[in-house]
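Annex B. Sample input.
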Amino acid sequence: MEINRLVRRPMNRINNERILLRSIILFSLFTLGAVAVIVGSDEPASPAEDGTLDALKSITGQAMMDSYAYAALEELSDHIGGRVSGTPAAARAVDWGIERMKGLGLVNVHQETFMLARGWSRGLAEAEIISPVRRRLRISSLGWVGSTAHGGVEGELVIVNRFQFDKEMKENAAKWASKILLITEKGAPPDEERPQHGIFGKFLKKAHAAHALAVIGTGGGPSAGMQLTHPYSPGWNEYFELPAVSITAEDQWKLERFLVKGDPVRVRIDVQNRVTPGPAESANVVGEIRGREHPEQIIVVGGHLDSWDLAEGTTDDGMGVATTLGAARAITKARLQPRRTLRFVLFTGEEQGLVGSLAYTQIHKDEMVNHVAAVILDIGQGPVTGLNLGGRKDLIPAVQKFADAMRGFAALKVTDDVLFGTDSGPFTLAGLPGIYMSQDSPDYAYTHHTEADTFDKVKQDILARDTAVMALTAYWIADRSERLAVPWPSEQTAKMLIEKKPDGLLKVHDLWPFGEVGNEARKSGPYAGLAGRLFEHGLGKSFANLLLFLASFPNEDRRRDCLMLFLQTLMLAKLAGKPGRPRKRPEALPRVSHGMEMTMLWEDELLEAWNMRISLERQGREFRIPLKRRGFKDDVVKAALNRKATPESSWAQVYAGRKHLAYGTARNALRALQKPGNWKPAPQI
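Annex B, continued. Sample output.
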């Protein structure tokens, strides 16, 4: 009726109304909100143009009007429950996944086994304060850690500041024998926290070697929520002999209050875990909808089947399991067969360091060239809000076309963000778009890994919507006329990861597969020219590499501060000489008052010295070397220490004054840096 009324309007308005009518009809073609547009041949096609539109509409209806995913999640949560990789519960979950996939009519349903470094299961974990009062403490053992002696151990509580793990290990490890270590947070956190697993795992090994009795707390700070513990695995597929536990925030703060008041605290702790003497078997579950035109081309769709065991593992990651199975159900119920193969995978070993997905990429390494993408959901119980393409910025225009078509149904932000905290990571390493679906899950901080991770935390309508988004994303990639992506060469992937910064995490855990490939990305930073100048003046590869490390910091102020410290150290250590004939570089600068060697070749020492200086400056103090001491020329010192000077101008001034750099010894220079008398109150401005 509305259309008839429109076409009877006066002729002088007919052209405008035809345009309006055409827009209305085009908008109505796709209930998800797609708007067909005329594009040039160089632009990616939208769903309305690439032939996937009708199929996507059908999938949406099947996913939104079906309760399959919700029922599957309830069964997984309530009847199987917590599913720690390598345990009988996880094996039951694998059998359940195979049965579910076969029931959906998927083909090539099977399990793919791999080995965990050790098998582990939770036992007793109890703790109590013995003095100054007697109180029970609420704790849970971390995963893949050892046990105390039978009957427990008792010891004095000693604080370890997680913001300064490196310093703690260097200066205080000798004091940890027969002590129970409490992880706390003191002072300002580092601007860029080190990879949590790497530094905390290193700390646990050091504490065990120092004969500590146990560790209370984690590398990630106090537990979130009320009366909750948050266990996790401190390493990537690694076992630690020292028992370590998560403690509720309330009990953590009680212990800290006693210690701050100066009260000696004694604690008894009893942890009895079970660990296999050797590797343990785990498995991924795999099933497919084979492609009709290019069955050899594969899109992986998945979540992780394993979970922690304090509760049911519903939000982490039963949600990903349910949406994966629900997506397969929606596509098969719509009687659709995409051009390419959809391979649905329920990973295990995720909580131990992406072991299952890493195993998948190894098992299928000869097939990876034919993989197109991986779509993963693993960020809780909230609605999907974005598609993150795992570093593949080149794919944003094409995926944005799909996201634009989804606006009437789900607003999705498309980015090239990278995540190695879930199973998308190994596919990114393989050069593929490892697409992880971001979600708005504010309660996830309180549910994942905790006793609160239960089925009642999930809303059926949100689960249905997330299932639809996963199914639509996967099917669109699989059925579009043009292949979305091919794997990048290793050089291109390595360069992207260096630019995106997860390379440090990967190298800490020996997961970096590229060797030195891609390191040229470091040389394109803002101080690359200065690094070249260091080479010209013979300062050596180690110092130039250190400068490239400084250039990698994303924060401009931090880059400048660290660079100033570096230039200052060059000056104080007499490392400048006649052009072309520099003085011999010492392998390590002399020891300073607290016994640390300032090698200037390692990140830890550099950051410790930098943090020392910044800490004093935050107290309103500044570094001043007396004008007539040790021959330092004031203008050169100011040039190197002026945090507001540009790196290039500072270098130019320092180099211009190089004849003055020969004064003093490295030992005296570093003592000057450490001596409190050289730090004066900063003038008030």
